[in-house]
UniProtKB/TrEMBL annotation:
Signal peptide: none annotated. The keyword Metal-binding does not apply. Transmembrane segments: none annotated. Regulates cellular senescence through inhibition of PTEN translation. Acts as a pro-apoptotic regulator in response to DNA damage. Residues 249-284 are annotated as: Disordered. Its main location: nucleus. GO terms for molecular function: RNA binding. SUPFAM superfamilies: Ribosomal protein L1. This is Ribosomal L1 domain-containing protein 1. Residues 255-270 have a biased composition (Basic residues). Keywords: Acetylation, Coiled coil, Isopeptide bond, Nucleus, Phosphoprotein, Ubl conjugation.
Length: 284
């Protein structure tokens, strides 16, 4: 009988290993920038690649993990997609003191003005972050599709009914998100090259702790953790040890009972042999 897997909700990630990997990755990025500088001077996103042993059931919405160092600069342009028309929502944001949202698009306008792939691609490139009214989150994959998914720009759901709407949106800006159930691996943003190594390490440690608290079976379900940029190789920061093999007791294999037909055939052969023996005796 297989041993029952113990759920571990604490992270066992080594900060020393994370420090080494982050330092190596940042140096790699700096060397690449020297040899081939970016014309736009864009900051590169840093990813934590999570590999699971067992794939959980798909989640309808991404899981939020709070981190100390925001993935988004203070001057980030945020676009909000809503169910209602834009004007009432803009007034709601203004009354709540929300200044980070630069654009509000209703679902109606999204369907009308952004039908083609190219128009969706351009929209995705205009803003640093997309958020949406959580009541329409399930409808957006149909209208945004590949243009947003491939750029990791899919909107993050937010409840516009929260009393502290400004605080709710600030939580989005101060968090990273994880989607589960769509494969054994998940890519989670944990920083960018504009952060210091210490800030990136802190984000990774906090994200690892958050993962252990969210996924089924906790830390025991983590196969590996790696960090990378969109263009670099993956650097390992954790690999699980092989699980203890479980001995399987072999059972004695019982021979199947002979059928009536097989019994008759066996008896016939015995009789034939006896007859042959009798004939040999008579001849002698």
């Amino acid at each position: 009988m297989a041993d029952k897997v113990k759920v571990v909700r604490e992270s066992v990630l080594s900060q020393k290993q994370v420090d080494l990997a982050v330092s190596a990755l940042m140096k790699h990025v700096q060397e690449k920038e020297k040899s081939k500088p970016s014309l736009l001077g864009d900051q590169q996103v840093l990813w934590l690649i999570l590999a699971l042993k067992k794939i959980p059931a798909p989640d309808k919405k991404p899981k939020r993990i709070a981190i100390s160092n925001s993935l988004h600069p203070d001057d980030s342009d945020v676009c909000l997609i809503t169910k209602s028309e834009g004007k009432p929502v803009k007034e709601l944001l203004q009354s709540a003191g929300v200044t980070s949202v630069k654009k509000v698009i209703s679902l109606t306008k999204l369907k009308k003005n952004y039908k083609s792939y190219e128009s969706k691609r351009q929209l995705a490139s205009l803003y640093d972050l997309f958020i949406c009214d959580d009541v329409i989150y399930h409808l957006l994959p149909k209208f945004l599709g590949k243009a947003f998914y491939t750029r990791k720009k899919f909107p993050i759901p937010v409840s516009l009914k929260k009393k502290d709407l400004k605080g709710e949106i600030n939580k989005v800006l101060q968090s990273t998100y994880m989607s589960l159930g769509h494969g054994s691996c998940s890519a989670i943003k944990i920083g960018h090259t504009g952060l210091t190594e210490e800030e990136v390490t802190a984000n990774i440690m906090e994200t690892a702790k958050g993962i252990a608290n969210i996924i089924p079976r906790g830390w025991k379900n983590i196969k590996s953790l790696n960090i990378k940029t969109s263009n670099s190789v993956s650097l390992p920061i954790y690999n699980s040890l092989p699980e203890r093999p479980v001995a399987i007791q072999s059972e004695s294999v019982k021979k199947p009972k002979a059928t009536i037909k097989e019994k008759k055939q066996k008896k016939r052969k015995v009789n034939e042999k006896e007859n042959e023996s009798d004939s040999e005796v008579e001849e002698s």
